[in-house]
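Many introductory courses stop at the sequence. We go one step further.
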Amino acid sequence: MTVSTLELDSSAPRGSSAPLRPRGRGKDAARTAGRLLPLTPAIALMGVFLAGPIGYALYGSLTNATLSGYRAVNPDFVGIDNYTRLLSSGAFWQSALLTLVFVLTSAVIGQNALGMFLAVLIEKAPKPVSGVVGALVVGAWVMPEIVAAFALYAFFSTNGTLNAVLQLFGGSSVTWLISFPLLAVILANIWRGTAFSMMVYGAALAEVPPEVHEAAQIDGAGPLQRFFRITLPMVRRAVATNMMLVTLQTLGVFTLIWVMTAGGPGTRSTTLPLLAFQEAFKLSQVGYGTAIATVTLMVGAIFAVVYVKVLKPEVD
């Protein structure tokens, strides 16, 4: 703090060591308030449409509310009973594990890696080819989720397109949605969400100056060296942002899995969003289902914090 921003307290006795008081604090507060004023509508909307529902859901998870009957109108406050119950439930931990596998394989690995690969190929390919490939990939992303889910159900079903292709080359029919339900929904989510990563990485790669690659090529760097030592560090901000967005988006995937497998057979593809839905709306335990949804929200927050903490030094 500089001397110019401080003044002596006149109420202090002469000759004593007077405390220093910041000058212009009122002006600083007014300036800060003026800067925050344009954000007021956004803060109000966040409070009404985000913080409000989250707070109400948190309260609902602490009650024994049901979908119908007396407890639907007058639920009792049960404290953390719902959380104690779900933490001792084998079905919850199985769903948590399935959710973790689904998010890591389909979003963190699948969509990110395939999106980057396609973005690099499209950047190097002739314009007509890149235009056709880009349109095909983006078509899966702009398709309404329910339509994409039915299309993928038809693709992986016993009499679907995938088995027809396998039989065309002499293979045998496979009951993908029954024998490999989690693999089917993972591949479906990769197909559905890769376009977003491809567009993010395509825009980031376009910002890399070609002179840098030309200089590295003159110095003898190969394609892989140029990608891992030049391109990837220069687009790390896009990588960090994309990983966070696709992870949080995949964590909440519901329609795709529900249409393809409904969480089955049994509970072999029941992720946390599906478990919350089944408990709340099929078994009428709204309070317990809300507790599962709240835990899912916390898992998403943990992912976000981990990404921010781990990737922030790279971003800075």
